[in-house]
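# nightly structure sweep
# worker-07 picked up a monomer target from the shared queue
# config: single-sequence mode, recycle default, output format = structure tokens
# input follows
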Amino acid sequence: MESVEWKSTQVSVTVIESPSRVQAPAPGSRVDAAVQSHGIALSSEIFNALQHHRQQGRLPELSERLYLVAVTIGVLVSINAANKRNAAIFLLHRSPVANSTWAITYLDGSFASGTVYSDSVTLGNTTFQYQYVEAAENVSQSFVGGGQNGILGLAFDQLNTIKPSKQYSLFSAIAPSLPQPFFTANLKKNASGTYTFGYLNKTEYVDPITYVDVDSSGGFWSFETTAYAVGGGSSATKQFSGIMDTGTTLLVLPSDIARAYYANVTGAAFDADNGGWTFSCDANLPALHLQIGGRTHTVPGAFLNFAPAAGGACFGGLQQSDDIPFSIFGDIFIKSQFVVFDRGTDPPRLGLAKQQGVNHDD
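# output follows
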């Protein structure tokens, strides 16, 4: 599929979480009363399609879509056709932010950089004017051919890398226009889910929602886990920090938890060639229980079989965090829960509830 050009300056979003920051125009000045009363709901269909097609070695047809992630910063789009096969290209108009550039490097060594522009961003049917769009002019190979057109970052503003002056993130700019300054993730296993801005859809979860304080000093949605258990085994005390990240696929936890889990999976082994824990694809996987905010949250065993790996084995959705300074609660975890990213409290907080329709007794 050849790259296509966007025909307008609007950036239509399908979703991700991350951060950014500078004197944005009055937040919400052009937002209608319906949004202020009811919020915005968005489908995560493209998000799931991208993951599925990456696994299958194929790419879906895409138009004006962004990839939503919780630990990156700003609205990033591609303007270089040579660097972005199978993706739409952002058309630059006369709206550069004077002398402003940006650059980011991720934990895996991937990177992107470019110039900053002011443009409108559309969430659902609502357009927010004068938002900062980071146009990617240089990207690492890992971003090439991935299918997404860009990233909508919803983490905290201190992660922003725009120079010479940091800018406000999209969420910081639109939060005052929402009924409540939070967004929710209701992602699904092998199905389309939703991201909702500003309100709780009570059909998506089972009460109660349990909240845990967030340490946002590093820019991430960082929180503490205090214990874990595998299957029907006893609970083990284990306090560790992790970040909630819709932009990471796997659940990445301390190595002793990973070892304890896979000790209960017949034939499981750490496979250096595949880069992680693998097991027989017909293995019966136990549930993983994690204590967060004083309550136990369960990832059913079926969610922890990620994908086929080389050699006929399957690659685990739970992997160990040997080379990074914190754990990552990626989509393997998030798809088994209903997650609230709440910036309306001090400190911010994360809310977790059972996702409607998920069998947490598995």
